[in-house]
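Q: Got a minute? One more chain.
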Amino acid sequence: MLGARVGLVDDQRFVNQVRQFQRTVGLERTDVLVAVASGAAVWLIVTLVAGFLADKIGRKRTYQLGFIILAISLFPVFALVNSGSLALLYLAFGLFSIGLGLTYGPQAALYSELFPASVRFSGVSISYTIGAIVGGAFAPTIAQALVQATGGTTAVAVYLLIVVAISFTAVSLIRDRAGIDLSVRNQAEQEVGALIIDKRTVESVKTAQEV
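A: Always. Here it is, folded:
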């Protein structure tokens, strides 16, 4: 699910990306950095809103809404970025941050409710790390390769759209378990039903544990 987010591996890569972006759109470095910061501010605000929204409509629906907004906004965002207009660059980063924020707000709650208490820390940390590496670490490299190969950003938008589609499918297979008792006393219920394809019952798990 983290595949839809373009991650930055380290500070040096971030600096190099800003320089490359500056040359591509023809804007001053400071202007680009301020635009990035403004997008991050929108991201923060939407993440907070998404946390409250996830408690109202569910973690799964909030995630799905975020991915839908990301899918719809991808091509317009790249068009705005490629315009070379600083005002439109602000708009592009702000628009893109809405979808990102909606997929970050419910993340901690969703991940915690996916795993039973006995393996929760391991499950969350491993799944998050793998998602960050596969979905985020290679994204800038892939994007740069696509731009160099095609001479434009359309291929990058298509690549991200595919990743968003995979992410949407993945979260759609999860059952929203908001409100489930996460204590160690509720281990049996936590072990079943995390995925919609899991047809086991709590009773069957308890029976297996007793054997």
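A: Residues 2-210 form a domain with the Growth Hormone; Chain: A; fold (CATH 1.20.1250.20).
Q: Perfect, thanks.
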